[in-house]
Specification:
This protein is α/β, with parallel strands linked by helices. It contains 15 helices and 16 strands.
């Protein structure tokens, strides 16, 4: 995509309604948008204002950054998802969105950030009032849906059913979008032919400066310390943490440590595993965890990118990912880690040996280079330009229709 300079509207910043079903949760999607907001305030102040709308049990409002607002809406019909007990979702009515416009100003473009019920209601609101709509595909939906289908369904049938369900739902959510942003071309495999034609790629959303320059005490001489393998993320079914924890005893036998950063509904299931469960970490504490880890382990296939891959890379920490995933694609391209067909005892012996070799220093340097190429400033530029382009196209259409009506009269 040509990143030519963005032209600011001299009259006012465009108001972008960003609809997300997860704002107060600790996850990659929320981290991505918070980094985008910080970058917007530094580089693109005055171009766009964000109205981040998310579902809550109780209505709330919070100022975030320069002129942006996070609006927690309590839909009349709302519920907590069984697989995400900490997350509430629901359908927001058109008139509730219109009430937001009366308080915060005319919404110029709607950005559908997640595939939940709030995303659905925001898309329908945009269609009802003929507002331009942009979507972002953050999750490999067929892989995610497959994880929560009944286990009695044969795996081949489950994959087919999950793809059919996911594609139909995605068309419902993103069908009215003029542009659907995705991290990489692997997303094409998840989508119907209709949505494939709308794709625009943007994968650079890691706040490199935050992870590369954070004020953290050095972890010491890593060569003199045990090799540490780490997982960072939500402990949930779709993350397939068992692929790692099944080998926790082997890791311990090698004299290595296994650190699990995060929490979630599957935490109790792994209570007896030989690993250090440290819960969620934020700010400098998270940076310290990344720097203490020799290899970040990514056992999931449901991520369309995996922001933790780039966060760790910004700290100079290589990653290990499954072949056929976006994380593996990036690792292979940069030589910034290891790609495996599966996690087994032999993999951890190999990683232990690599961590003690000269090859490891080269991997660390390549990881930092990969992160530098995916700085959030690049992704934010694409997002802001996409929103402004959508506004210009919509305005041109309105002017054309107005001229045609005047000529007809």
């Amino acid at each position: 995509m040509d990143l030519h300079p963005i032209l600011r509207d001299a009259n006012r910043a465009r108001l972008v309604l960003l609809a997300t079903d997860c704002w107060n949760q600790t996850n990659g999607i929320t981290t991505l948008y918070r980094a985008v907001i910080r970058c917007m305030d530094e580089r693109f102040r005055g171009y766009c204002r964000l109205l981040v709308v998310h579902p809550t049990d109780h209505a709330c409002e919070q100022s975030i950054g320069y002129g942006h607002q996070a609006i927690g809406m309590a839909p009349r019909f709302r519920f907590h998802l069984p697989q995400y007990p900490e997350l509430v979702t629901g359908y927001v009515r058109h008139k509730d969105f219109r009430n937001l416009e009366s308080m915060y100003g005319h919404v110029d473009v709607v950005h559908v950030a997640t595939q939940g019920f709030l995303g659905l209601s925001a898309m329908r609101y945009a269609a009802r009032y003929r507002k331009p709509c942009v979507g972002f595909y953050h999750t490999n939906w067929p892989a995610y849906v497959s994880e929560y289908l009944p286990s009695l369904i044969p795996s081949r049938l489950k994959a087919t059913a999950a793809q059919m369900i996911a594609r139909r739902w995605d068309r419902l959510i993103y069908g009215q979008c003029s542009v659907l942003i995705a991290h990489t071309s692997r997303t094409e495999r998840c989508l119907s032919s209709v949505l494939k034609r709308k794709l625009l790629y943007a994968s650079a959303f890691v706040d490199v400066r935050r992870f590369a320059t954070a004020d953290v005490m050095p972890s010491g001489d890593q060569d003199a310390e045990p090799v540490v393998f780490g997982f960072v993320g939500r402990i949930a079914k779709e993350k397939h943490l068992s692929r790692i924890l099944n080998h926790a005893d082997t890791i311990k036998r090698l004299g290595c440590r296994l650190t699990i950063v995060g929490d979630g509904p599957e935490r109790r299931r792994f209570a007896r595993a030989s690993a250090d469960f440290v819960g969620y970490k934020h700010g400098d504490d998270l940076v310290a965890m990344y720097r203490a880890i020799h290899f970040l382990l990514i056992p999931t296939r449901s991520d369309t990118l995996g922001l933790v891959l780039l966060e760790a890379a910004a700290c100079g920490t290589p990653a290990v990912a499954l072949r056929g995933t976006v994380a593996a694609d990036l690792i292979s391209r940069y030589g910034s880690g290891v790609v495996v067909d599966d996690f087994d005892d032999g993999v951890f012996q190999y990683l232990h040996n690599v961590a003690r070799s000269d090859q490891f220093k080269e991997m660390r340097a390549r990881a930092k280079a990969m992160a530098a190429d995916h700085d959030v400033s690049l992704g934010t530029t694409i997002l802001v330009k996409t929103w402004l382009d959508a506004c210009r196209v919509a305005q041109h259409r309105q002017e054309t229709v107005g001229e045609a009506s005047a000529t007809g009269s």
